[in-house]
Amino acid sequence: MTEDVNPGSVRPPTLLGIPSYLAGNVARATTRTLTRSLAEHGLSLNQHAVLVALRDFGPMASHEIADRLDVDRSQVVGFVDRLERDGFVTRSREAHDRRRVLISATAKSVEAERRITEAARAAGSSLFDVLSPDELAQLVRLLRKVLDAHDDARLG
């Protein structure tokens, strides 16, 4: 599997033949850039993910957010606490089940999330400039396929 490895690479060729090594290192590189971009907007990666989940799926309980983002349920409380303090989300009791607390995006977060997501897309794209648009689309399809299989196994 190492036949396509760049002979001038600084990394061990054996590791470059291990998909999880490659994926992990690309993830770390892109996450550093994304984290810096989000910090400029006062958000962590996980806080941004919560806002995006609320935009995509609407109001949810914290355990639903955790399940959709594949993060520990106990961590979501901290993410939501900070977002609530900053005026990005509200908590409210569900009308038909007063025990259930829903997290909802505020108007402030809807506007901010759109801007921040665009900035995050732009920040993360520079590492992928070496790929053609078709290659990038193929990479996204393949990564989604792997992640979808992981989610099916995790939730199934």
TrEMBL record:
<dbReference type="GO" id="GO:0006950">
    <property type="term" value="P:response to stress"/>
</dbReference>
<dbReference type="GO" id="GO:0003700">
    <property type="term" value="F:DNA-binding transcription factor activity"/>
</dbReference>
<dbReference type="Pfam" id="PF01047">
    <property type="entry name" value="MarR"/>
</dbReference>
<dbReference type="GO" id="GO:0003677">
    <property type="term" value="F:DNA binding"/>
</dbReference>
<dbReference type="InterPro" id="IPR039422">
    <property type="entry name" value="MarR/SlyA-like"/>
</dbReference>
<dbReference type="InterPro" id="IPR036390">
    <property type="entry name" value="WH_DNA-bd_sf"/>
</dbReference>
<dbReference type="InterPro" id="IPR000835">
    <property type="entry name" value="HTH_MarR-typ"/>
</dbReference>
<feature type="domain" description="HTH marR-type">
    <location>
        <begin position="19"/>
        <end position="148"/>
    </location>
</feature>
<keyword id="KW-0804">Transcription</keyword>
<dbReference type="InterPro" id="IPR036388">
    <property type="entry name" value="WH-like_DNA-bd_sf"/>
</dbReference>
<keyword id="KW-0238">DNA-binding</keyword>
<keyword id="KW-0805">Transcription regulation</keyword>
<dbReference type="InterPro" id="IPR023187">
    <property type="entry name" value="Tscrpt_reg_MarR-type_CS"/>
</dbReference>
<protein>
    <submittedName>
        <fullName>DNA-binding transcriptional regulator, MarR family</fullName>
    </submittedName>
</protein>
